[in-house]
Write a structure and sequence with these properties.
Order of helices and strands of chain A: EEEEEEEEE
Order of helices and strands of chain B: EEEEEEEEEEE
Low-confidence stretches of chain B: none
Helix content of chain B: under 10%
Shape of chain A: globular
Mean pLDDT of chain A: 91
Number of helices of chain A: 0
Largest sheet of chain B: 7 strands, mixed
Largest interface: A-B, 28 and 25 residues
Oligomer: heterodimer
Structural class of chain B: mainly beta
Number of helices of chain B: 0
Distance between the termini of chain A: 38 Å
Helix content of chain A: under 10%
Radius of gyration of chain B: 13 Å
Chain lengths: 111, 115
Amino acid sequence: DAKTTQPPSMDCAEGRAANLPCNHSTISGNEYVYWYRQIHSQGPQYIIHGLKNNETNEMASLIITEDRKSSTLILPHATLRDTAVYYCIVRVGVYTDKLIFGTGTRLQVFP
Amino acid sequence: DAMVIQNPRYQVTQFGKPVTLSCSQTLNHNVMYWYQQKSSQAPKLLFHYYDKDFNNEADTPDNFQSRRPNTSFCFLDIRSPGLGDAAMYLCATSRGGQGFGYGYTFGSGTRLTVV
């Protein structure tokens, strides 16, 4: 599975959009981009995933560049409860079931 | 609600004394995983069961074992815990073969302390 690079930490003001970047320059054509987050002392929680098109759900939006070498997770209106570690993971979506976590980005939302 | 339950939430064990952590699920997922997460680190996959097939990660120490007696339950056995095994242990499930990451459901974890 391709390696991902994320900034170790970011801050965001409550109510503003949080934009979390992820680089995955060695991504293959059949690899999906997944985002999970982990709030302190809880298990990781699925947020969103995509292959090549931009995706949106009730939690977030995922923007994938045309060359698929990077992506951005957008939390449109961050709240204090969004403070967590966010993991960007690239993996083959069809037959490989293992989820391998990188170092992630620690997002701190402040009042 | 369908979920993944880990018991106990906190476990204290003595150095060298075998300990078992348990995980149960009501999702009827055929794949179950165990992750180890040390303080300020990302979760690290130890092994997983795909149905009854056990799949060990190459760097998982022999001190860690697992059992899956049926679809709903999976156990993590640490034969001789050392101080370095103190960590949060996370259980997760997924519907194998479907190939989509959103199928992963994590439990709340068991925090293991070794004294």
